[in-house]
Design brief:
heterodimer; A: alpha+beta; 5-stranded antiparallel beta sheet; 24% helix; disordered C terminus; B: 82 residues; 5-stranded mixed beta sheet; 2 helices; 5 strands
Amino acid sequence: MDPEAGGIVLFVGTIRNRTGSVRVQGLEYEVYRTMAQQKLADLEQEIRRRWPVKSVTMIHREGKLKIGEVSVVVTVSAVHRREAFEAARFAIERIKRSFPIWKRERLEGGRYSWVKGTPIQQLRRGATRIRVPRTVRSRRRIRVEA
Amino acid sequence: MVSVKILYFAQAREAAGTGSEYFSLDDQASVKDALSKAFTSHPKLKEIERSIKVALNEEITENDARLHEGDRVALLPPVVGG
């Protein structure tokens, strides 16, 4: 634990018991391992380029998982919480869209169904920061930006 | 001739009936040629052809990229991480 870090943000993704209105019994993740590992390394580098974070750890699980189990963990520490929150959110959004990872649901009756995904997005070099929703303006006209 | 490894994931793996195989292609072959051969060998892949992205040696690639001995061409259906 870096003594300069003032905050640690931890995101834990868990397996839900339903997708839309369909009940799910379990999930299976398929991963293109060598590419995913390279992309994790690239993602960490990109995070460090954009934010002055201290430590970054990202873990994604593979294979069969049960409802309630952990699928992904992202943790970021930084001097200030703002960078830690922004970087952690950026990481999980990237993991959802830019990684060679696929999900298969096990439905009632033992049927399997692939979760509908989006075409893998490439990390764009020099892209601007992701837009994070603003919060409500206070009456004293102090704008709080996420 | 160049020998390249083709990798199939998720729905592509089910359509091809295998997770990977090796193709022997002409020296001048490009990613497009590898894909053509994949679709010819496994016609079911054509059903998902439009939604597939391709990675060459773990980087998303253009179809006209030239292939070299030992390259890995991966067919990636739409992804769902997290």
